[in-house]
Amino acid sequence: MTSKDPQPPFMAQPQPMPGMTDLMDPRPDHGEHDYRGSGRLQDKKAIITGGDSGIGHAVAIAFAREGADVLISYLPEEEDDAQQVRKEIEDAGRTALLAPGDISSADHCRAIVAHAVEEFGRIDVLVNNAAHQDTFKAIEEITDEEWELTFAVNIHSMFYLTKAAVPHMKPGASIINTTSVQADDPSQELLAYASTKGAIQNFTGGLAQMLADKGIRANCVAPGPIWTPLIPATMPEEKVTSFGEQVPLKRPGQPRELAPVYVLLASDEASYISGSTVAVTGGKPII
Description:
Elements: E1 45-49, H1 54-65, E2 69-74, H2 79-91, E3 96-100, H3 106-120, E4 125-128, H4 144-165, E5 174-178, H5 191-211, E6 217-223, H6 230-234, H7 237-241, H8 259-266, E7 277-280
Helix pairs in contact: 1-2, 1-8, 3-4, 4-5
């Protein structure tokens, strides 16, 4: 724990989905001022979904400062956040591509990959990070449309993106999927979201085996409570004000604290890591 890591209680700060970084207090730390690269991803070509904010934002900064060119995908209403990330990638001396749109659409997923291949020539790293969540007290409150949207954004898109990307990946390439502590310890109010996170973990385990003969690795990162726009945009105020106090470190993680794990899994240093789930949970064990 460091003095600069914000701890609960936080202010009640409701905002509409999908949430905006600049409306948060305290503002999430994506490593803008602190992350220092050392060439670990030099000249790699990466796609990051949900790269406009939260974990994806932090990963985009880290990848660029490690030497990668980065395409970020995001919802059109998140354009302001995406433009900030583009500036940070370009300030690191790397190429930034923007792909606004809805990844619940299979066609848009294929378009993202096509755009990256057209501009980069290949794909070395695919980070399936974007997610949708909402909270409900009872199963009767979850509409069919909400259930289907959660699965479409969180797990179906991974299939579409991965299927499109693999033909453009060479041995040594890496796929990194964001699961969650919810995969192992589901909260009842996040029934749909937690269900998709369990699916992501199994998808990744099977994918790692399926792609091994191609020399392509697949792994998961399982965050615990992380301070991102998804929190005030989707959780009740009482959950927001106490967010993170339930883990042993007694605070939420900042997005910058996830980025080094993604860098490792994307790098050639992780050549024997595949089919793994790396927990970043503030001391809460997962099994």
